[in-house]
From TrEMBL:
Gene3D superfamilies: GTP cyclohydrolase II. Its EC number is 3.5.4.25. PANTHER family: 3,4-DIHYDROXY-2-BUTANONE 4-PHOSPHATE SYNTHASE, GTP CYCLOHYDROLASE II-RELATED. It comes from the Bacteria. SUPFAM superfamilies: RibA-like (SSF142695). Residues 28-177 form the GTP cyclohydrolase II domain. It catalyses: GTP + 4 H2O = 2,5-diamino-6-hydroxy-4-(5-phosphoribosylamino)-pyrimidine + formate + 2 phosphate + 3 H(+). One of its GO terms (molecular function) is GTP cyclohydrolase II activity. Keywords: GTP-binding, Hydrolase, Metal-binding, Nucleotide-binding, Riboflavin biosynthesis, Zinc. Its cofactor is Zn(2+). It holds the Pfam family GTP_cyclohydro2. This is GTP cyclohydrolase II. InterPro entries: GTP_cyclohydro_II, RibA, RibA-like_sf.
């Protein structure tokens, strides 16, 4: 991760009412940016009046799960859980355009075909010539600093998100886990993510 990227700046802000599954409408503020390291259109969605050390969810875009409701992953339920929690407690959702752990939508669908042939989600990415997880959270650190946040409580089960944010100088006071959203269709996927998280935590502990 490049720690010396220029700071991003807020491009604009707009209010947006967000309807929850139960019918409740949350008031949200959507923030756009200029100067992000990868040039993509990432967003911060702020709910309520976040405290000085806010709850933050860094969520990578998943069109199949977030929009279409695919049960091959747990992305859609994690997003819904995060928005509901942020709506209750106040905080920031960082919505990053990093489909397929950074490999893009079409490549992710190609990876699905390989998973149908027996590979797990990380092995499939490797078979396509990508890393197991190609996401870089430099932009997340840029976005947080642009809105005046230097320290967070991080809503995640992924130790790499914490490690990358801390390496970029964002303080993480604690990690708040999300629930396990297990279905008949995503069991192998969740088990692969669990193994990957354990391996990542071990690598971080020995300073890789």
């Amino acid at each position: 991760m490049n720690h010396r990227v220029p700071p991003a700046v807020v491009r604009g802000q707009v209010t947006m009412p967000v309807r929850q599954p139960g019918g409740q409408v949350l008031a949200a503020r959507v923030v756009t940016f200029e100067g992000l390291a990868d040039g993509r259109e990432h967003l911060v969605v702020t709910f309520g009046d976040p405290p000085q050390v806010p709850l933050v969810r860094v969520h990578s875009e998943c069109l199949t799960g977030d929009v279409l409701g695919s049960e091959r992953c747990d992305c859609g339920p994690q997003l819904a859980e995060s928005v509901a929690r942020l709506g209750r407690e106040g905080g920031h959702l960082l919505y990053l355009r990093q489909e397929g752990r950074g490999i893009g939508l079409y490549n992710k669908l190609d990876a699905y075909l390989l998973q149908d042939g027996g590979l797990d989600t990380f092995e499939a990415n490797l078979a396509l010539g990508f890393g197991p997880d190609d996401r870089d959270y430099t932009v997340a650190a840029q976005m947080l600093r642009a809105i005046g946040v230097e320290e967070v409580e991080l809503l995640t089960n992924n130790p790499d998100k914490r490690a990358q944010l801390e390496a970029a100088g964002i303080g993480v006071t604690r990690t708040v886990p999300t629930r396990t959203h297990l279905t008949a269709a995503n069991g192998r996927y969740l088990e692969a993510k669990r193994r990957r998280a354990v391996e990542q935590a071990w690598l971080d502990s020995v300073g890789r």
